[in-house]
Target: HAMP domain-containing protein
Amino acid sequence: MTTSSTAQQAAPKRRWRNFLLDTSFQLKLTAYIVGVTLVLSALLGVFLVRSARALMQETATAVEARSKAAEVSRELSSATLSNELLARMDDPAFEAAFREKAQTIDAAYEQERAAIVAQRAELEWRQRATWWVLGAFLLAFIAVVALGTIVVTHRVAGPLLRIRRMVGEVAEGKLRPPSYGLRDGDELKDLFDATRTMMQRLREQSEEDARVLAKALEVAERGGASGESLGELRALESRFRARLDA
Model:
């Protein structure tokens, strides 16, 4: 029997449904990493929330100051007009000018008031949008970390699964090394190659033992050995060949 050589074939491509090869190991490690990510994200979130609240508070204070300034400006303008009215009570032409100025002051105040209301509404909208963006970013970040961890652990779990399978086959007496190696990017390549080399050498040794046993059986048959001895040798040879053909 000649020594069999293991053909180097291309490793099959990864598929999304096969990324969870060792579910317990991969999900446990993913849970640990996501937990750490949650803690760090919570700390960062507290800092961002406090900073955002401080900024919003400063903006709200500025809007409130603008509102008070508009009120004060209106009151001062009204007081000035009232003083002018008292000083020029006997001037008939001043009444029309007074009404025009009063309307101008009221229009300016209403315009400023509308601008303040719009600014407050925009501030509230930005505050709500900030919380939504922070929450969505946190969820997306956790999802990316979880998926990334599964992908990374897949590069370890896949080789471990194949190494465990090879060791199990050796324990069962099956000496057939895998026909293809690991995928690009997989880890534990040295350990995988060492295990496959061990399996290949065990197979070569078994093939050599099978050849020696076949020759011994041939010599025994020519030498007229007893039927019982020949039967035992044939049974042993059959076990060797069955192990190699498994």
Observations:
- The longest helix spans residues 92-171.
- Confidence is low (pLDDT under 50) at residues 1-8.
- The helical segments are 23-87, 92-171, 189-222, 227-245.
